User: Fold this.
Amino acid sequence: MNSHFQPNQSYWHEVIDADSAPLFATLNDRLNVDVALVGGGYTSLMCALHLKNQQPNLSVAVLESHYIGFGSSGRNAGMVLHDLHDNRANAFGKDAVRFTYEQVAGVINTMKTLNQRYDFDCDLEKNGYLELALYPSHIEDLYEKQKLYDRYKQDFRIVDQQELQSEIHVPQFMGAGLYPHAAQLHPGKYILGLKKAALQEGVMIFEHTPVQALQQGERIRLKTSQGVIESDAVVLGLNAYHPGSKLAPMHNRVVSLFSFIALTESLGPRLKDVLGWQKRWGYSDMRYLHNYVRLVDEDRLLFGGRVRYRFGTTLTPAQEQQMYGQLTGEFFKRFPMLTGTKIEHQWCGSVAFNMTQTPTMGVTGKHQNIFYSLGYSGMGVSLASLGGQVLADLYLGHEDRWEGLIYLKDKHWPLPPEPFKFLGFTGKYWWMRWQDYLDSRSLKSVSQP
Ligand SMILES: Cc1cc2nc3c(=O)[nH]c(=O)nc-3n(C[C@H](O)[C@H](O)[C@H](O)COP(=O)(O)OP(=O)(O)OC[C@H]3O[C@@H](n4cnc5c(N)ncnc54)[C@H](O)[C@@H]3O)c2cc1C
Assistant:
């Protein structure tokens, strides 16, 4: 491992740590603002920026317990994804599903606009994303998906085994569904770009400022480790940190799960010679407990997965090491042709899931002045970027812009307390493992003479 990296710091932090991003002051005083945002990730920064773009006179402060990008926004795999939530069509109608899909897919254009306007590059590559079939039953699911996308008149196409293997030379890959408009980016450069843009617009940023308590009122009072901030409205940009933060009223709406990443050394000419991968498609395989994979820089492979729920919110170092060991084992099982390759970086972070696996956004509290957006289910690069914009518009009274958005209608109820939450998720985890096992048997029945 590179000695520059702290334990469990992502590869992207090389950029976040750069001199150009000095740490900001801790809030150690009393402060009055119009809007206070808790959490220094994509949700809060996008919201802060969108607020200032529309109303430059608003006073807006972001409070982050560590430093901007410490959370999932500085740890993710950088895939900018979208999917059709047809499972919500019965509740909200197909037009709402289509509208929502188009808004999420459109986030890539917002990113491009921000890159230009604030002159930052986050290595945005719009090269498509695959849902990758490992078993015959996955291929059947892909054909169903093709029909669904055709019905909604949205772009999606099946890449058959021959085409897929001529692009990525892995014999186990049976085919894939291609989302041609998906993208990938450098999460560290993206969060740093948002931070600089927010500062340029006059957003106040306080790092190393954990919010310890939220007192509701017409003016909300946030108590931080060393100060107090009062505001007309609060935005909770905490996503997977909600359960750990214990900040009512949204702390019990999501389950927070760990996800792990391993990043190889530069593969050099081995990449092209052994694997091909010229189109640089990212993918996640179609198992319930899947891996997600993409190329980073010119020639490194990022391999993620091993989602885990822990009773409480932290992992011990021994548990972390066990997970990395298992992840690396899976990597070499999937890519045996890369045996001997060094894993140079590994890190983990939290993702937030709820029952419907669609986010929820809105405003709550006795005085309807606490704004929330959470439950991105591992798709938060685009969803948090969208959520921030939606919350800004809700605050400014422009909710009509988002009338069809199902995330605003889809209310989530509190999850049960421990140990029921743990038992519920553990049951679901074993159910998913069992389904993956059954799907893998379809492979055996095909390969038997
Ligand atoms: C390993 C991994 C891989 C992922 N890969 C992808 C991917 O490829 N594509 C995708 O779309 N999504 C991915 N995600 C999910 C995505 O990164 C998140 O959904 C998204 O970054 C959430 O952004 P956010 O701003 O809402 O929250 P975060 O970025 O998590 O920000 C919340 C912040 O709140 C701070 N905080 C916590 N408590 C307090 C407090 N009391 N006071 C002040 N601050 C506090 C935390 O330090 C944190 O920085 C991945 C996540 C992980 C962990």
